[in-house]
Amino acid sequence: MANISLTTDTYAGYFSDVIIASSVLGARTIENGYITLHTNVDDKATAVFVDSSVSIDDANGTFSSSSTASLDEIKFTLGKYMINAELDYKNLDSFWLASQQPRGAAGDYVAPASLEDALNQHFAQKASLFVGASIWGGSAAAITQFGASQGLAQGGSNAVTGLIDKMLADSSVNDVAVGGTYKQDISAFTKASDAEITVTSNADFAVGDIVTFENVVGSSGTDWSGLSGKSHAIKSLVSTNAFTIELDTSAFTGTWSSGTVTCITKENVVSALEACYSGMADSIRLAPDTAIYVPSRIAAAYKIAQAEAAYSPSVYSADYQLSYLGYPLYEIPEMRPNAVVVSRVANLHFATPLLSDLNSVLIADQASVNASRTIRYRLDFCFDVNISDGKSITLLS
Fold first, then answer.
1. Where do the DSSP E strands lie in 199-308?
2. How do residues 52-111 score in pLDDT, each as one tens digit?
3. How far apart are the C-alpha atoms of 137 and 189, rounded to whole Å?
4. Is the full-model pTM beyond 0.85?
5. DSSP 377-392
6. CA–CA gap between residue 263 and residue 357 (Å, rounded)
């Protein structure tokens, strides 16, 4: 492959739709049907929901119009993103050869038919990973979560607010209160090279467990409040009610005032799910699409807790579809740690315009432009998420 040969450098119609769909709709949450899709949203749009009040009268009474209709709406403001890459011929050659290698024990790997297909598959996977993480944690958190491992970075100021933050900002959402060891008030937060946090009890925690902060308030500045929504691993257990994390707070401005910390482990995961189940709105208990959404860490903790209860002491086998009291429990690897959501699929929304100038794919050989031995790849895509009927959603975070 000494000479790069591109059969096409632009995409339109069906082929563009396929590439965009695999890039934007390839996220696990979307592919598995865990969220409601809106694929015709262009730039800014509003989805309107209609409700009505009905008066039930005595059948012997006279007719009178007494019902009213009310409109509720959710708004989408699309976050616009672009993947742009410039690859030299040497790297392209290696990239192409790697894409043609047989993979899998069964040898059933179907290699891309062309260099364009290989590039599109590669960058579509990057985009779908970013979209999937953005759905739950927002675009900034997606970069933090996968930037180092997947080579993702973000430029510009465009942002999508994830579902968890949308729920936290909606006062009608039932936010599970402090309880048990899974969610506790912070009673002390020190300024130190390894910050020390004091809670009621750390009996269910272990070194390496992940804790997530929320509603952290300080006396001045944003150092302390900036911890809200952030997760850190436990470095050491100091006493029966304190632990340290590898976070240097010694230079933080002001002093800590209040906040909560959530840490769901195999020791308390059943109690956490019970709290979420108890907080579930009655209006969705019998809905066919009601589900419990958890990150992989909580799914693993739940599996281990069940295995230890059923097969104690040490023989575990098989995997199975997770559920809790009859409700499917969906594992979302891209969710931030220590978050549990109980919701109908119908109340979680993802918006994008599949057929729009906002979404496009372009591959351009630069040899004829500036005599450089490179090609440029550009993928434009956009999306947003939102929730509806917040009062029927329960959140533990």
1. 210-218, 231-237, 242-245, 256-262, 290-294
2. 888 888 888 777 777 888 878 888 999 999 998 898 988 888 888 888 887 776 667 778
3. 25
4. yes
5. EEEEEEEEEEES-GGG
6. 44
